[in-house]
Structures are given as C-alpha cells and as structure tokens.
Amino acid sequence: MNNRQHAEPIPLIEIPVGLNHGTCSKDTSKALVHALQESGFLLIKSPLLSPEYQIKALEAARHFLRHTKSKLIVEHPEDPKVYAMLDSKKDCKKASADLYEYMDIMEKIKVDVLMHLAVGLDMKDANFFTKLHDEHNDTLRVINYHKTCSETTANRCKEHSDYGSITLLSTDGVSGLEIFHNGNWIPVPYVKGALVVNIGTLLSGWTKGDLKATLHRVAGPASLHSQTPKETLIEACKHTRTSIAFFADPNHSISSKLSSEEDEGLKEALGGMSVADYIEWRSGGSSKFHDRSGIGFTSNERDMLDDLSRPCRGGNPNAAS
Ligand SMILES: O=C(O)CCC(=O)C(=O)O
Ligand SMILES: [Fe+2]
C-alpha cells in the first residue's frame, strides 16, 4: 500500500493567518486540497477561532434556539431538531452578539480557506476564488438536535450534500456526524476548537468533480450502515446536540466574470440555472432564496441513497425523499 491509501480520510490541518499578505504555504494548501479530493472533508484549526470562543458561540446558538421567541426558529419537519437560518449579519446581531462575532470570524476563515484552495489547485491567481465570493452570500445555520433517549432513533440529520462553495461547521462534540466514504458511513472525529470543512456541489462541479461534495448525516442508533459504534450513538441520543454550519455561496453574478475555460465545470453544475436559482432548487424549491429547510440531492446522490436503503441494522432507513 502506498501513503495515499494509508492517509487519514479526514485529517486535521492547521491553517495560519496573514494569507492576504501572500504567506499561504504551498504544503498546507496541497494537504487541504488533497483531503477535499479524497474524502471531501477535513478539520482545520485557525488562530482566528479559539476553542473558548467556539464554545461561547455554540452556547449562544443553543440559548437562542431554546430560550428565544423568533420567527427564524423552525422545527424541522422530519429530523428531531430545531434550527434557524441567519442569512445576514443583521440576523446574527439580532440573535446574539456572540453569533455576530462568530459570523465575522467565519468570513475571515472562509477567505483563508478559499485562498488555500486556489494555491493548492495551482491556480495562477491565489485570489481567484476569494474575488468570486466577495458579495458575502454567507449564511449561518444554528441547529439544536433534541435528545430522544431511544435506540430506534435513526438519522438526527438526514443524509445530504451541501450545495454552495464551502461549509465550515462547529459542533459541540456530541457524536453522530458521519460521511459517506468508500461505501461506508464513517464518523467525523471531534477536535475541540477545530472546524469541519466540506465542499458544496457548486464548487465540486466547478472543479469538475476534483474536489468532492460528500454525502453526510448525523446518525442515530438506528441509522443504516453506520461505522460509529452503536453504544456511542445510543449515548449521544441521550444528549441535545448543537452545531453551527456556515455556508458560503459564490457571487450571484459569477458567470459573467469567468472566462469560458474557468466557466465550463460551473456551467455544467448549474445546468442552465443562475447561482441563485441553483441554491433555491437544492434547498427544496423554496421561494425564499437561502432557505435550506428542504435538503435536496443531485440525481446521482439520490440513486446512491436508493441503493443504500436496504436495511441492515434495524429501524426505518430514513431514506431520502
Ligand atoms: O449538525 C451537523 O453536525 C451537520 C449539519 C449539516 O450538515 C448541515 O446543516 O448541512
Ligand atoms: Fe451539511
């Protein structure tokens, strides 16, 4: 076996700050890109986000979802969770000062990650992606999963892929997050202070599938084909679980800014739609731009999930619908 086969599918990579001054390390960029080519997921640590601040933001999210009356808070129709989409800094500010500051930090880390991607992909312009994300079409989704204390709980978050450019995720360490990698649902390790990074289908298509948009879910004890020990998932269900997903979408005017060569993969991924329409379509066809209450699948992913919905470990498969 070569090193590639031994490589950790979801590595932890430290990314430094100061990238705007051209200090982006080639090795770090290559490692980041490699993980996104292999599994589509990795963990990063950035000096911009301290473990203490991450905990503070998660506490603010939990407090907002459990103790505030806000029209933004929605009970999910299928998964056992409540969530809110904070589409703007204004929404974040209204929810909590800590979430506002967290959004600010995520926007900075987004720039760092996008710059690493351009360098790791050997693009001539290290700012290629950052320039095409300067409209800040970013959204925070704060989520609180209910405790169910039941062995028959299947997915706490249904299988899906994300669909913008990149997602930066903080979780409180309650187990269950899994990715579909090489035919298995494998757990994503938890590292305090680290962010989980993954790719959405638009950026994946843009790179012609080079960077993977990977199916993921939050499993429960009755989720199918899980590689997480069942006892771990039973224990996790005894706890509420809080997470914050930061979704970055590309500029809506993007197509007009690209040369035809750069445009090809993105055009194909968009299938004739505008970026805004694509986001709406993947979010379940909601008339609201950023509403992701319905999780969509690409047709390839739907076929893959259909193949997977044969039961092997009890409970309802909770398959995509
Ligand atoms: O809660 C989590 O850990 C994952 C959430 C997620 O994947 C999403 O909201 O897109
Ligand atoms: Fe997701």
Automatic annotation (TrEMBL):
Gene3D superfamilies in the record: B-lactam Antibiotic, Isopenicillin N Synthase, Chain
Domain named Fe2OG dioxygenase: residues: 135-250
Keyword Hydrolase recorded: no
Keyword Repeat: no
One MF term in the entry's GO annotations: metal ion binding
Record's compositionally biased regions (Basic and acidic residues): 300-310
UniProt region (Disordered), positions on chain: 292-321
Organism domain of life: Eukaryota
InterPro entries on file: IPNS-like_FE2OG_OXY, IPNS-like_sf, Oxoglu/Fe-dep_dioxygenase_dom
Alphabetic keyword roster: Iron, Metal-binding, Oxidoreductase
Family to which this protein belongs: Belongs to the iron/ascorbate-dependent oxidoreductase family.
Record-given protein name: Clavaminate synthase-like protein
Species this protein is from: Chaetoceros tenuissimus
